[in-house]
Design brief:
It is a single chain. The protein is built from 5 helices and 4 strands. A hairpin with a 5-residue loop joins strand 3 and strand 4. By secondary structure, the chain is of the alpha+beta class. It has 2 domains: about 50 residues; about 100 residues, Fusion Protein Consisting Of Minor Coat Protein, Glycine Rich Linker, Tola, And A His Tag, Chain: A, Domain 2. It starts with a helix and ends in a 10-residue tail after the last strand. Strands 2-1-3-4 form a 4-stranded antiparallel β-sheet.
Length: about 200
């Protein structure tokens, strides 16, 4: 590129010579601009490769708990006394909190939470967990895994009343509220958040 910058007026087209143009400024400017554009394009390509898009699926194994969890068994024939879906959600929330006591914090949730995870799940007529999926998350994979694992470790649940079932299942959503230390409360039974 330096050779292009040291052109003489004899090597320029006739029109450029007639205008007494400075060959160094025009030619070097173009050459340097081409180099700068090439460097910027290369940097943009590399930056695009390094960043992860929100649409990029993330491989994760949310079905396996991250720690060894002690499962507290519930007798399979316990019937819930709940007559409404909200009352049944409360029964399940209490069951999840009891089964995962070391991961549940007492007291009011902090003002700014680490993570809020909404899980939709279905329970069959016998109280067995049929399916669960994350509906809302801030993409904190640790808290997502904890929420799903805590739900699974608490199953089976008390049997729901038959009038609550639709096509043999009861589908509900629950919200896990995570403090910075990774412990949670369930919104159904949580205390009000602290003021900021």
């Amino acid at each position: 590129m330096l050779n292009q910058c040291s052109l003489t007026s004899a090597s320029l087209p006739r029109r450029a010579r007639s205008l007494d143009a400075d060959p160094y400024s025009t030619t070097c400017f173009n050459a340097h601009m081409n180099i700068r554009i090439a460097i910027l394009l290369a940097a943009a390509v590399l930056a695009g490769c390094a960043s992860r898009s929100d649409e990029t699926p993330v491989a994760r194994n949310a079905d396996k708990p991250t720690r060894t969890e002690k499962k507290t068994e519930m007798p399979a024939d316990i019937m819930s006394a709940a007559r409404t879906i909200d009352d049944y959600k409360r029964d399940i929330a209490l069951r999840i909190s009891e089964a995962n006591a070391p991961k549940v914090y007492a007291g009011r949730p902090q003002a700014l939470l680490r993570s809020v995870i909404v899980v939709r799940y279905a329970v069959d007529g016998r109280g067995h967990l049929v399916r669960s999926e994350i509906m809302r998350s801030n993409r904190d994979h640790e808290t997502e895994s904890t929420a799903l694992a805590s739900l699974r470790s608490a199953a089976p649940f008390p049997k729901p009343a038959s009038h609550l079932l639709r096509r043999g299942q009861l589908e509900v959503s629950e919200t896990w509220l995570f403090n910075n230390d990774g412990r949670f409360q369930l919104r159904t039974i949580a205390q009000p958040q602290m003021d900021q």
